[in-house]
Structure prediction request, 243 residues.
Amino acid sequence: MKKNILILLALAILSCQKDKNNKEKIEQKNITENQQEITKNEDVKIEAFESKSKFFWDYFKENEDKIYNFDKLSKDEQQKIWRQIHIRLSVINEALGVEISAVPKNGKRELIITANGLVDLFPAVRKLTANAPKMEKWIVKPFKQRMKKVRIRMSSGIDMSSDDLYFKIDSKKEKRLNISVYMKGYEKIPANRRREILYQLLDGILGEEDVETYLGAIEDSDKKDDSYINSDRLIEEVDKLKK
Prediction:
């Protein structure tokens, strides 16, 4: 009787162990299949991006001479080019944009690919820039770049430069500066345009990537005191965070 009980117990243990092994194999199979599916999806995403990127660069490469001489084109031709550029960027993401530098006396123009301040699009900007073909007349760069002096002129009469901004560093947290900004003549700027103009100036002062990486909270101020610094000093403070 005891022997029979022991045999039954051994069989039960063996059966449980077998079920456990089968369960583990099924779980491992599911994990492997999920990993393969994720990898497959990522490959599809990469292939899709490469295709969309090619769609943009094929047009730009084909028309690089015309776009280089953009300023000499008629308004109709300029609009056609901007429309085509926008269509091709929109295939990747509608928020992406480009900026074209002024024509240099000798040398290449710069084509800036911008995420327009949207951090989630930074990877797309980097990939699109990395996929740029070699072009004789163009240098392609990711993100709006720092400029020696930034100036914004609008048809509404708004005329502001980086010299009109003053900054107060309120606090530093995790390699980010929380700042207050005083805009000279801000009362003349419509309230619904102030942030737009401020970020355009900041992008030119620090560069788009540094604005999103090293600035935290940005508050408006209607007055300034001796604790406020100019744009050159703000650049110095941001560059310290990179070390």
Notes: The longest strand covers residues 165-172. The two ends are 79 Å apart (CA to CA). The longest helix spans residues 2-62. The chain is about 50% helix and 20% strand.
